[in-house]
Amino acid sequence: MKTIPETGCLVAGEWLTDGPHADRVGPYLRQTVSRARTAQDDDIAAALAYARRAAKHVARLAPATRADILEGAAAAVTVHGEELARLLALELGKPLKDGRGEIVRVADTLSVAAAEARMIGGEVLPVAGWGRGVGNTALTQRAPAGPVLAITPFNAPANLLAHKLAASFAAGNTTIVKPPPQAPAVSTALVELLLEAGMPVEAVQVLHGGGDVGARLCAAPEIAVVSFTGGLAAGRAVAHAAGPKRVLLELGGNAATIVCEDADIAEAARICARTGYSNSGQSCISVQRVYVQRSRFDEFADALTGEVKALAVGDPLDAATDVGSMVDDDAAERVVRWTAEAARAGATVTAGGTRTGAVMAPTVVVAPPRDARVVREEVFGALVAVLPYDGFDEVLEECNRSTYGLQAGLFTHDVRRIVAAWRELEVGGLVVNGSSNFRLDHVPFGGVKDSGIGRESPRWMIEDFTVTKTLLLRGLTIWGEQ
């Protein structure tokens, strides 16, 4: 490969490159693919102090200025899309086709954040509707909340960084970014594009490192809002470290998709195969549990197995590859182990179940016990479990047994079932005639239960990254005298 990208920490407007570095070994290439300068205690202290000073500068930027910068960045991301997708493939083993799709979403997210920046405002409140309000006027505005800490995950490091950083900047905040250790180069490259598009240096800092860096930042009083995406255990640690400040958590999932007897089985199988193994299943809304009405169960299991066996597995830099590698060998080995456990308990493995290094063969586990880990816990890997059900009320209850509640899918044309599922399923979102693994970046996204707190997507994140400030004008009224 070409020269290994070396990324620094961006602190107080300066890229720091001297000092200790951590190498990222690509899970597919099995060699160093990027190198990041690790943040030290002095860097963290300097970044926090600078964030406090920079907050006022960023807040004074007009929303139109912020929007123009974000739109320019969206255009730049499109121009540099191929090199960003290549970095995703090198650092994470993500196939080029998945990486290209993520970069398209990055550009969309930046554009949506720009549009939302232009809409930030307030309202005139109807205070004269109550006796004590007569003769007064009340107005509100959305003001920047203060320095934001954005902790991003490895599975979609570019798009989820775009969501957090773009929304924070659109809201008028300065942001400290703590990228995942597995994807330092692509995270840094996106920040560099935003700076080249005109984002002021006061608006963003980047600190590379592990959980210790994140914990120190979370606990810092200079931070007003923490936005974290990652696993449940890490999310709990973030919330504990942050204490009584605003914390937004987008955590794990154990996504269920229901296939009813009136569904197009071939189409449902095709969609579940395509969305259950994209990014090697390393998505919080990846298809994990598919519940199929018993009369169509065998037909669906056979169709899904056939679709899965047709997926192209291997080199993420090959444009034809559907499934690349998982993030590391340990992650792949965990999926192999859980598959074997389910098989010993009576499940049938109709595809996969093996790995080569970090490449997990796309795996289908048919009829596992309901208490198997592939059903009960978050797999976050290239595995889909298929289970039969009899009654619709029964399957809704079964889906809700999970401690997670992020998103679900439903294949049916029965509007009564659609409404019942939307009402009864304990999830943040329901996709009809699609699998759980579908998201539009301009609609609210987030879960309930152990799947987190808050909603992502620029409009809803801007609400969390701002505070409502009220102005009361005594003796001045636009509503008429008493």
Structure commentary:
- Helix 3 packs across helix 4, helix 5 crosses helix 15 and helix 9 packs across helix 10.
- The mean pLDDT is 97.
- It is built from 15 helices and 25 strands.
- With 482 residues, it is α/β, with parallel strands linked by helices.
- The chain is globular, with a radius of gyration of 24 Å.
- The strands form 7 sheets. It has a 7-stranded mixed β-sheet with strand order 15-18-19-14-13-21-22, with helices on both faces. The protein has a 6-stranded mixed β-sheet with strand order 10-9-8-11-12-24, with helices on both faces. Strands 1-5-4 form a 3-stranded mixed β-sheet.
- Strand 2 and strand 3 form a beta hairpin.
The total of beta strands comes to 25
The major pleated sheet works out as: 7 strands, mixed
pLDDT averaged residue by residue: 97
Globally, the shape reads: globular
Features of the shown structure:
six-stranded mixed β-sheet, 482 residues, globular, alpha/beta, 39% helix, 15 helices, single chain, 25 strands
Present the secondary structure layout.
Layout: E1 6-7, E2 9-11, E3 14-16, E4 21-25, E5 32-37, H1 41-59, H2 63-79, H3 81-92, H4 96-117, E6 122-125, E7 136-144, E8 148-151, H5 157-170, E9 175-178, H6 184-196, E10 204-206, H7 211-219, E11 225-229, H8 232-242, E12 246-250, E13 256-259, H9 265-276, E14 289-293, H10 294-309, H11 329-344, E15 348-351, E16 355-356, E17 359-360, E18 363-366, H12 373-376, E19 383-389, H13 392-399, E20 404-405, E21 407-411, H14 415-424, E22 429-432, E23 448-449, E24 452-453, H15 458-464, E25 466-474
Parallel strand pairs: 1-5, 8-9, 8-11, 9-10, 11-12, 13-14, 13-21, 14-19, 18-19, 21-22
Antiparallel strand pairs: 2-3, 4-5, 6-7, 7-25, 12-24, 15-18, 16-17, 20-23
Helix pairs in contact: 2-4, 2-6, 3-4, 3-6, 4-5, 5-15, 7-8, 9-10
